[in-house]
Specification:
It is built from two helices and 25 strands. With 312 residues, the protein is mainly beta. A five-stranded antiparallel β-sheet has the order 21-22-23-24-25, with no helix packed on it. Strands 1-2-3-4 form a four-stranded antiparallel β-sheet, with no helix packed on it. The protein starts with 7 loop residues before the first helix and ends in a 7-residue tail after the last strand.
Length: 312
């Protein structure tokens, strides 16, 4: 366990729960969401968030309106959106119970949707990989990097043109909680881990610690801006740190002032366009900012929308 990070025990407990016995998604009412695992800004509607949850994909629109996307209610453990193609999203996780009973596949591998999450298809590693962190990279025409907690645990790289997958040695990387790739062709890869932030400059082959000013503290979320390649946010689960912002690709960091508490860390960050940034916590809370993190507005509390918020 990392030194001086009181919330790491919670993070490790959550990771152990998710990677243990299969937790099948169950239908849920559209008035609340449970166990948020991922966030993305809908590029077609910048005021709308896509929320990956334990029971399916949800759109959180203006005026904090919640609605399910599509009919599938699977458990989206890993989730990421293509930064330029509006309807392309990727996911991983577990099926709902009826699907499992029908297909007998507990780990969904890598899934692709070309219609914003309304329908999905398996593209690789079905029945094997369970990616709890996913990110898109522009390297070599487009690649996905994912950290699987099932099968051969570790870091995988998948071509989005051939769907060929490979498990990387990833020397220096373990206990991954979040991944984010730079938006430049040779950009750095960042990984939030239980021991801090890690960086790779060689496509994921080797990793080294990245300075955040809070060494050893768990980094539970990290995300690059889709259009500004040097702008990155990371959440460090330590008092005095919290949500950090980097304007130079992760070389140096500055605090935004947002800290959600050691027992309810931020688990997902969505960035852009413009100065928009949103965060989700393990407590089912979502906050959003339209000024780069200077001011914040709660739009979801305990999985339920905050009345009158979200569209101001």
């Amino acid at each position: 366990m990392a030194r001086g990070s009181g919330g790491v025990a919670l993070v490790l407990a959550l990771a152990a729960l998710c990677s243990g016995a299969r937790a099948f998604a169950q239908p849920a009412a559209p008035v609340a969401v449970h166990h948020i695992h991922g966030l993305a800004v809908d590029p077609r509607e910048p005021e709308t968030l896509l929320v990956a949850t334990h029971t399916g994909l949800v759109r959180l629109g203006p005026q904090a309106r919640l609605e399910w996307v599509g009919e599938q209610r699977f458990d989206l453990m890993g989730f990421t959106a293509h930064p330029a193609k509006a309807n392309v999203v990727y996911a991983s996780g577990h099926p709902d119970l009826p699907t499992y009973r029908r297909e007998q596949v507990g780990n969904l591998g890598l899934l692709l949707s070309g219609d914003g999450g309304r329908t999905w298809r398996s593209v690789t590693l079905g029945g094997h990989a369970d990616f709890h962190a996913l990110t898109w990279s522009p390297r070599e025409g487009g690649q996905l990097y994912g950290w699987s907690v099932a099968g051969q645990v570790g870091l995988y790289r998948v071509s989005v043109t051939t769907w060929r997958s490979e498990r990387l040695e990833a020397r220096g990387l373990s206990n991954v909680l979040a991944l984010s790739a730079g938006r430049e062709a040779a950009g750095a890869l960042l990984a939030g881990t239980t021991e801090g932030l890690r960086v790779s400059l060689d496509g994921g082959a080797t990793w080294r610690p990245a300075a955040t000013g809070a060494p050893g503290a768990a980094v539970t979320a990290v995300a690059h801006h889709g259009l500004e390649p040097r702008l990155v946010y990371a959440y460090v689960n330590r008092r005095g740190a919290g949500l950090l912002r980097s304007r130079d690709g992760g070389a140096t960091w500055e605090p935004t002032g947002l800290f959600s508490g050691l027992d309810a860390p931020v688990v997902a960050v969505a960035v852009g366009p413009g100065d928009r940034v949103a965060v989700a916590t393990t407590a089912g809370e979502i906050q959003r900012s339209r000024d780069g993190g200077r001011t914040w507005q709660k739009v979801l509390v305990a999985g339920r929308p905050v009345a009158g918020e979200g569209g101001r």
